[in-house]
Amino acid sequence: MKRVFPFIVAIATLSLLGCDSAQPSKSAKATPAPAAKPEPSPAQSVVPEKPKEAPEATEPEMVLFNGKDMGQWVAADYVEGGKVLLKDGTIVIEKGNDMTGIKWTGPLMRMNYELTLEAIRVEGEDFFCGLTFPYGKDPCTLICGGWGGSLVGLSNIDYYDAANNQTSTSRSFDNGKWYPIRLRITPAKIEAWIDNDKVVDFETTDHKIGIRFEVTPCKPLGIATWRTSGAVRNIKVVRITP
After folding, report:
1. Rounded CA gap, 221 and 224, in Å?
2. Long-range CB contacts (within 8 A, 24+) of 145-151
3. Is the pLDDT reported for residue 114 higher than 50?
4. What's the pLDDT score for residue 242?
5. Which of 18, 107, 143, 212 could form a disulfide with 162 if both were Cys (CB 3.0 to 4.6 A apart)?
6. Helices (H), 74-191
7. For residue 44, what pLDDT band results from cuts at 50, 70 and 90?
8. Which residues sit opposite 142 in a β-bridge?
9. Does 48 map to a domain?
10. Per-residue model confidence as pLDDT tens digits over 128-168
């Protein structure tokens, strides 16, 4: 009888090895298919909202401060500004570091108008009335008592401030005294009076009208002080015929 056992054992062993190699190892982990990348969304441009312009005043005359409440005046946005408060029929603008101010938020006259007010330097040695006003679409500032307490002029003219342009002048101011201020705006001129003395008579043709950046929180119409306490009252604006 022939011996076939070793041959059968060999065939069986190969068969078993082949079957084992076809089965995945229990310790092997299946690698997950990579997640599909999301389709990039189209870029969306964000258009900043334009600041709303104050409406043009329709009345021939407006009382901007009645002595009883702030009305449409608000404190200007100065980081280290002093207090703004009502006292004895006035708006008090207290000393700030460096500036304190107020801003008008109501309708505006931008051309052919006269603005009048009274201002007082309560305490300090610099400008107690930096009156920022509209000249058409451009703001400008009348400085009363700046740069040490006596300088008067428009800021800015052709990018030069009141200390360095042709409107610069000097006069004395007493603390504790009310000064009437009148500003007249026409297409050809900016004129100003303090205590009935004409202090500005400037022909605007071919000149660039502007402001210093420090008074930006007061534009287009506002009043500011520089390291000085001041107060204002009797603020009015009247439309005129040039």
Report:
1. 10
2. 145/121, 145/173, 145/228, 146/226, 149/125, 149/173, 151/127
3. yes
4. 77
5. 143
6. none
7. very low
8. 131, 154
9. no
10. 999 999 999 999 999 999 999 999 999 999 999 999 999 99
- Alpha carbon distance 107, 53 (integer Å): 9
Q: Residue 148 to residues 30, 94, 167, 175, 226: CA-CA distances in angstroms? A: 82, 18, 17, 13, 10
- Model pLDDT for residues 61-93, shown as the tens digit of each residue: 999 999 999 999 999 999 999 999 999 999 999
197 domain residue, yes or no: yes
- What are phi and psi for residue 71, nearest 5 degrees? 60, -125
CATH value at residue 223: 2.60.120.560
Q: What is the domain range of residue 212?
A: 61-239
Decide if 9 is inside a domain. no
Decide: 214 and 162 in contact? Cβ < 8 Å. Answer: no
Indicate the residue type of 54.
Answer: A
CB atoms within 10 A of CB 212: 15
Number of domains in the chain: 1
Lay out the sheet containing 129-135: strands in order across: 73-75, 99-104, 222-226, 129-135, 138-146, 151-155, 169-170
Name the more confident of 47 and 58: 58
For the chain, helix (H) and strand (E) counts, in that order, are 1, 15
| Number of neighbouring beta carbons within 10 Å of residue 89 | 12
- Mean pLDDT for all residues in the chain: 86
Is residue 235 situated within a structural domain?
Answer: yes
